[in-house]
Amino acid sequence: MSAPFTARHIGTDAAAQRQMLDTLGYDSVAALVERAVPASIHAQPRTTSDIPAAASEDEALRELRELAGANRTAKPMIGLGYYDTHTPAVIQRNVFENPSWYTAYTPYQPEISQGRLEALINFQTMVTDLTGLATANASMLDESTAVVEGMLVARRACKGASNVFVVDADALPQTKALLRHRAEALGIRIVETDYAAGLPDGDEVFGAFVQYPGATGRVWDPSEVITAVHAQGGLVVVAADLLALTLLRSPGSLGADIAVGTTQRFGVPLGFGGPHAGYMAVRTGLERQLPGRLVGVSQDAAGHPAYRLALQTREQHIRREKATSNICTAQVLLAVMASMYAVYHGPGGLRRIATEVAQKTEALATELRGYGLTLASDAVFDTLRVHVPGDAGRIVERARSRGYQLFWADDASVGVSVDETTTAADLAAVAWAFGAVEEPGAELAVADAQPLAAVADSLHRTEGYLEHPVFNTHHSETAMMRYLKQLADRDYALDRGMIPLGSCTMKLNAATEMAAVSWPEFSRVHPFAPADDVAGYLAMIEQLETWLAEVTGYDAVSLQPNAGSQGELAGLLAIRGFHRANGDHERTVCLIPSSAHGTNAASAVLAGMSVVVVACDEAGNVELADLRAKIAAHADRLAALMITYPSTHGVYEHDVLEITQAVHDAGGQVYVDGANLNALLGFARFGDLGGDVSHLNLHKTFAIPHGGGGPGVGPVAAKAHLAPYLPSHPLSQRADHAGGFVFDGGPVSAAPYGSASILPISWAYVRMMGAEGLREATGAAVLAANYIAARLRAHYPVLYAGEGGLVAHECILDLRPLREATGITVDDVAKRLIDYGFHAPTMSFPVAGTLMVEPTESEDLAEIERFIEAMIAIHAEAHAVAAGKWPASDNPLVNAPHTAQSVVAGEWSHPYSREEAVYPVPSQVRTKYWPPVRRIDNAYGDRNLVCACPPPEAFA
Question: Which EC numbers characterise this protein's activity in its record (predicted)?
Fold first, then answer.
């Protein structure tokens, strides 16, 4: 019989844990954690559990196969921003299913992230070329949230005082719903209009939104509307289909200020709604307004070009309540796939695919018109809206009987969308569903159809795009495979070694957990498919929601938020909705400890709240006296307290029950940030701490990989009284979603269940761990963090600790004394760790000049010891500098990291040896990771902003 999954997931076995416990002076892991976690919040043993006993890996896969089998395989032709697509096998195998790509972390250490940064700058170049705008970011969460962010950019950039934003009546329904929900909290008035009649009369507008092509498929020229908005001083956001833009004029050429959309149809599976990479591009002058991440070109210490995150990177952490967005992530893995789809096909291949889509669409349109049916628009790219008064339901069911999903727009109209997978036989079957052909077995004639036949000549694209060599080189599978391998080799991911990042939990993403993500029964499912066609998905989602509710102590869970920041926002909007339903419109103050994640404050502002900061004491705990004073000062206006538990400083606060009670007594709600659930799971529950609502990070605690900085899932869990205000969705498949489908919540993402295709990962994790395994994982994580703290405390002070000198699942090493004694900075230590074969811990968060270390439960003792050895050796190197062995300006730390070229080419003039530079410990000789660039100059990159592919000669 094979070993239980817990033994595969948890890196330290009984013998290793015994050794670690002996160092700490505890008899058992349980005794250690129970000492660290306040006794007042220990979870009571449960007599029954909704979480079944741990399954083996084979059993879990069999159960997932049963769930997948309950999803009806159909041909999705619903459209609305989601399309079936062919993922090139070379991309699926070498990116989507490759741990070198999906286990990488956010590229905050750019020297060891050059591969994915190049892939992202390819993505940005692809987007700017196709949209005709100056600068694109490194991806958004999805199209609808990108539209909202575009609206917020327009509001910030507009110099007028208007609060009116005009929205295209032909926009996607999920986007319109999300705009309404998000705008209401910010005091923005949405005015929906049919642009055929021009801009609405009345107030001036700060911006307008155009869908191009429209949800009904209509392709029209919005340039007059854009000019009219500009005349009022407003900005225009255009949501554009990138595949259509290979044939149609770009938004930039039409005068748009901002372009947004999705790159899903560039080889990224449907996945029941996600994850997919949205995009945003802006005209010149708006670069610094861009939300999210932006990759730029800088140079390293040798003057060689190098990539890094530019400008406002992590600005929501730095600026907090003054941040312009709460988005702290991207959809990197999916952006990489989409960019590589463009690299693989090239401009000619993309145009050929788009032309075939348009040709097939026109062939179907001709057939339906010939049968006497009327279309909402004859000028189309890939979507038809067919007028069938009183007959829509019957036609949709006829199509479904043959395995096709169409969009039932209303009783009088049906939508049909064509994609690159659509065949002539598919077109004939759809025409049969409408009654236009007698038998569905034939194939519709396509060859003679004229693509974009009714689209005005002035809208046909004449601009070039994707002319950079990267999009015109790697078109054979051999070339593509080697390019992807080359990029992966430039990166450091979890498949190389430990990534000990505090606040991030880079744990094992087991292959068994990942397996189902590629299955077509999960990956090729439309998010708006009929409920009967997605029974397996809905059953899996319901099970996962139930399990998450149990382990957190809440009553309802929504899996819709597709990032932790969006889960924060959803929870705060639920609190806002609850107060408003009770008539407490004045409750708008959100108390946030000074130690909190920066996204907390940004999310509160986006939920229409005012942030009041609560002080923390020297131990990192919320200062009770200041909390009580702030509560008293704002009692009648208090909406919520946001508190992270364990705290952002990595300690278990003993006064948490007193804190939450004080907020409740004043009529407020308690939001417990779930970022650190990895230190609590199985030992205590947020709901028992006094929490009313929390978001969780499935990409941290529940094993979904970070994918180079995304995807993620940030579900929101709440007590029963907040459940009606959790996210809802106009196209959701079930009425009981999130504890009650009353639409008080409104959507926070484009799809009803967010990034649903990666939920099988967390489902499998919980199913194979079981309740007891989850508890064991927490214990192993807390043990590893405390072991590192104990071993390194003599070299680096541990900044915060709770009772018994214990930390939670992470510890903060204070490097400020080292800098004072030696001149060596936290940056020097982080870069030197690369030479030792490590990704650095989290730098200068939550305290400047520190490293926050989280080893996670999946690391074994040998890897933990290797990290400890490296940190002790670096400490000795720093003191060697202070002792005069090496000059302060020329030593292994300030020159780190060292590339192969730097130690091989030219004269070696440094006062330390080549061996000391690149082989600081003997184990490096056989396992060396070679960084591709030396230390990168961040300031140079911001002064000389370049955010698109540099010319090949730059690398000569």
Answer: 1.4.4.2
